[in-house]
Amino acid sequence: MSAARIPVVVLGDTARAIHHGCRQVMENLARGLTAIGCDITARHPGPGWRNDPTLVAAMKQARAIIINGEGTIHHDRPGGAEYMAAAEFARDHGVPVFLINCTWAANSPELSRRAAVFRRIYVRESFSQQELAAAGIVSTVVPDLTLATPAPPPATTRRGWWITDSAQTATTERLYRLTRQIPNAAFAPILASDWHATSPGRRAKRHFQRWLGRHFSPLAPARYVALAHALPDAATYLRAMTGVRAVLTGRFHAACFALVTGTPFLAVRANTTKLEALLQDAGLRSDRLLAESELTPSTVGARLDTVAWDTAEAAHLAAYVARAQTAIAAMFAHIAQEAR
After folding, report:
1. Domain 6-148+323-339 listed as CATH 3.40.50.2300
2. How do 246-250 and 265-268 pair as beta strands?
3. What is the pLDDT of residue 1?
């Protein structure tokens, strides 16, 4: 007789985000949970979870709650407090909660102490693990779930450069201007052009913004231009990435996709140290990280010309991706074992 399926609830659901990385995380999360015998009975972005009675009922009946932390729990942002409250609610109803795929950065001692509510914590990089350890909280490093994505076949040749967008609007503006100033560079935002999962009003808004980006570039805001350059899904984005020589990105998930496809990259410092940690954990050169002040045509152009992996880095990144996939599989196995 086959084992009964395990009912689980997922918070931090980013499947509706117009962002290839967030969508790919959820695809890999759902696939991983299904493979270990779990059925997702409810899923929710997280904020406002108390106001959804169907979700609250599912949380009480679940054998486990999985919280996809991603880049939410830093600097005491409200989203982090929402996740803590959800975990405490679940604990009070006897349901174990697993915080996964998380960056933990610059949070208060109080929020860190509350993290003891989780049955297990899986952080994306070692800097988050160190911050939690300083507060007496044990966690396990399991790299970002995007790294569980199968690599597409490599392109026959690689040509030109990609410059992506950023989570920060001002940085996206600078990166888009660079695209117009550097020869053979193309703007390649990590945003998705497939908006079927959004509300009709928001979908109409996105279409109008994309129309403005297409017809009034470069006068339109860079975020509108980004929508005009968006590719439909992560699979298309990854296949296209295999055909470029290198990527300059302001996005953590674009850096992860570069590792999956073996594409050399430079990254812009973010509002947390997750990119610094990724480079260190993967055994890559720290000078792949650029400050905002270095986003000039001369500096970026020179750096792109010398961005190829050296022999040691090529070996390190292959080993890192392989370790990541092993660690992700082990994480799912541990969750299944403790939820049964």
Report:
1. yes
2. parallel
3. 44
